[in-house]
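Sequence, please.
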């Protein structure tokens, strides 16, 4: 509990808005993957937020980022 709260706190601290969140089902007691789509933001803000997220005790792996360009 509280994992998503810590992640969204790091994002909001950098003024990054969340557009959607998906958490696929995982087996009980196993780590869950969380997919977060954000609103447009500056890369420097995202880098800063990712550093904060990486330091959370509840985050087991370094976050991955896939940039989505909208034309």
């Amino acid at each position: 509990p509280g994992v998503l709260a810590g992640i969204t706190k790091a994002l909001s601290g950098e003024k990054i808005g969340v557009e959607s969140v998906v958490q696929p089902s995982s087996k009980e007691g196993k780590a869950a993957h969380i997919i977060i789509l954000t609103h447009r933001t500056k890369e420097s803000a995202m880098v800063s937020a990712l550093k904060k997220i990486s330091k959370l005790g509840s985050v087991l792996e370094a976050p991955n980022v896939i940039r989505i360009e909208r034309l």
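The first helix runs from residue 3 to 13.
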